[in-house]
Specification:
Blueprint (H helix, E strand, L loop, with lengths): L7 H18 L1 H8 L8
Helix pairs in contact: 1-2
Length: 42
């Protein structure tokens, strides 16, 4: 599996996206829809 590093800006963007989606749909629903495709939690 290839490794990669996130810049601080990219990491902040990912966290902001995660906050937005959990506010819109709820964290449990988000995880249940993605299932095992989700490799990390924000």
């Amino acid at each position: 599996m290839p490794t990669f590093t996130l810049t601080n800006k990219a990491f902040a963007d990912l966290k902001a996206i995660g906050r937005y989606t959990s506010e819109q749909w709820g964290r449990e629903q988000l995880y249940s829809q993605t299932g095992d495709k989700l490799k990390f939690r924000l």
